[in-house]
Structures are given as C-alpha cells and as structure tokens.
Amino acid sequence: MKPLYLASQSPRRLQLLEQLGLQPTLMTPEPHEDAEALEVVSPGEAPSTYVQRVTRLKLDASLRRMKWLGWPAGVVLCADTTVAQGR
C-alpha cells in the first residue's frame, strides 16, 4: 500500500483520517517556507478559484518537499477551506 501524506496543519483533518483507521505522515511546512503567503487572496478572485489555486500550491510545495526529503511516492491529501459570505 502506498504511503498517505497529509499536507495540512488541520487537527480536524488528521482526526478524521485517524477515525477511519488511517495513519498519515504529516507534511508540515519547513521553517523557511511561508505557508501563510500561499493563502493571500488575489484582488477580485472568486472563492472557488482561490481554493483551487491555494490547494494546488500546497500540493506543489508538498511534492517538492517529498522529493527533497527522499520520501517514497504516495498519496498526498491537501485541501483548503474558506468562508465566502455573499459571494
């Protein structure tokens, strides 16, 4: 079975996976990475576009980190959640 990597700092996502009996490897940002910079909203950006863009950036960063650390290929779970009132 391929390894499962959780590219998220969300305690709730980890808890949900553990409730399913899964043991993901956490992929938290390295100290030199600015995770918050990935989540800056571009002017006029639609919420759905924002979430897709940020999730893709998180995935790309996670894949680079896996390669740099020499981790085996596996499934990477990453996501982003946002609240968009009135949009």
Descriptive notes:
The protein is of the alpha/beta class. The protein has one domain. Helix content is 37%, strand content 9%. It has two helices and three strands. It has helices spanning 11-19, 47-69, and strands at 4-6, 25-26, 75-77. Strands 2-1-3 form a three-stranded parallel beta sheet, with helices on one face. The longest helix is centred in the middle third of the chain and has 23 residues, at 47-69. The protein is globular, with a radius of gyration of 14 Å. The termini are far apart. The mean pLDDT is 87.
The whole-angstrom Rg is: 14 Å
Strand content: 5-15%
The shape, in one word, is globular
- Helix fraction, binned, reads 25-40%
| Spatial arrangement of strands, main beta sheet | 2-1-3
**Element-level helix/strand string:** EHEHE
**Stretches where pLDDT falls below 50 for ≥5 residues?**
none
Give the beta-strand count.
3
Oligomer: single chain
Q: Structurally, how many domains make up the residues?
A: 1
Query: Alpha-carbon distance between the termini?
Result: 41 Å
Most strands sheet:
3 strands, parallel
Number of H/I helices: 2
Mean pLDDT equals: 87
Provide the structure class.
alpha/beta
How would you summarize this macromolecular structure in one to three sentences?
This protein has 87 residues and is of the alpha/beta class. Helices cover 37% and strands 9% of the residues. The longest helix is centred in the middle third of the chain and has 23 residues, at 47-69.
